[in-house]
Amino acid sequence: MQNPQEVYLRNQVNTARPEDLTLMLYNGAIKFLNQAKMAIEKKDIPKANSSLVKTQDIITELMTTLNMDYEISKSLVSLYDYMKNRLIEANIAKDVAAIVEIESMLLELRNTWAMAMKQGKSS
Asked: Any idea what the Cα angle at residue 117 is, between residues 116 and 121, rounded to 5°?
């Protein structure tokens, strides 16, 4: 039998619009970064590693879904690449400051994306 929460999440993803999926990816990355910070504080190294790897996977997904026909996408690829490299460094050193740096960047991108979605709906 399937977990009802997993079924709900799968249905949410399968029926979401592309712009909603991007927002979900940002939210997921931020959630996993918070989990990584807490795991490091608790000295739970396997959990920290898992959460940081999940965040890296989400950033990879954000990179692969970019439409490279737009100039901003080229800038975002560089930014995402920087984030992934910093997360690898953070994972090796269990560096909370690096995680906070990337979390701040993702929060800004997430909030900008959410604002753009609102403006797109109103026009």
From this structure: 115
Helix (H) or strand (E) holding 17, with range, is: none
Query: Distance between CA 7 and CA 19 in Å, rounded?
Result: 21
And the tokens for 51?
Answer: 């959460």
**Residue that wins the pLDDT comparison between 12 and 76:** 76
Using alpha carbons only, how large is the chain's radius of gyration in Å? 15
For the chain, domain boundaries: 18-122
Pairwise CA distance, residues 47 & 50, whole Å: 5
CB atoms within 10 A of CB 86: 16
Q: How confident is residue 13, by pLDDT bands cut at 50, 70 and 90?
A: low
Q: Does domain 18-122 have CATH number 1.20.120.340?
A: yes
- The structure's pTM equals 0.88
Gap between the Cα atoms of 87 and 95, Å rounded: 9
Residue 121 has a pLDDT of 81
3-state secondary structure of 38: helix
